[in-house]
Design brief:
Layout lengths: L1 E12 L8 E3 L2 E3 L13 H14 L6 H8 L5 H11 L4 E10 L9 H11 L7 E6 L12 E12 L1
Parallel strand pairs: 4-5
Antiparallel strand pairs: 1-6, 2-3, 4-6
Helix pairs in contact: 1-3
């Protein structure tokens, strides 16, 4: 059996100029501000998309996602789908997600995030681990200016 590990990262600042929806992991959060970005700025899905790109060697965010954005496709699940297509016969074994932010509170939504991300990525919720921290306010994320997400995806092939 072959195994590969992918590492992804992304960060977005809160958009203080409009009342965009805050969508994380495809789940809508009840929060007065969304994140700045051309797309829906779903920082969790972008991090996961980058983690898959680091496995496949085919980058989606940047070139391909920007082109979709210009066509009005701002739903980050579409970018994730492109990355998942590139996985071919690699099977997702585990997804680890680490979120750094002060706001919103992530812990009440962790189960909903696992269920939705499992559905989007064709895996089971028990293959997903999500942790969240404020990092003791040492960074802009921990001070409430934005959200950073790191993720690691493990895949296997028989
Ligand atoms: Zn992003």
């Amino acid at each position: 059996m072959s195994i590969k590990t992918g590492l992804g990262q992304d960060s977005h600042a809160f958009d203080v100029t409009n009342s965009k929806l805050l969508i994380l992991g495809g789940v809508e959060f009840d929060h007065p501000q969304g994140l700045r970005g051309n797309s829906d700025a779903d920082v969790i899905l972008h991090s996961l998309t980058n983690a898959i790109s680091s496995i496949t060697g085919k980058n989606i965010l940047g070139a391909k996602a920007d082109a979709l954005c210009q066509q009005g496709i701002t739903d980050s699940t579409e970018y994730l789908k492109l990355a998942l297509n590139d996985l071919d016969d690699w099977h997702i074994e585990h997804i680890a997600i680490s979120i750094e932010c002060l706001i919103p509170k992530i812990s009440p939504k962790i189960e909903a995030l696992k269920v939705n991300i499992a559905k989007l990525m064709n895996t089971q919720a028990n293959n997903i681990g999500i942790t969240a921290t404020t990092g003791e306010g040492l960074t802009a994320f921990g001070r409430g200016e934005g959200i950073q997400v790191l993720s690691i995806i493990t895949v296997s092939k028989a």
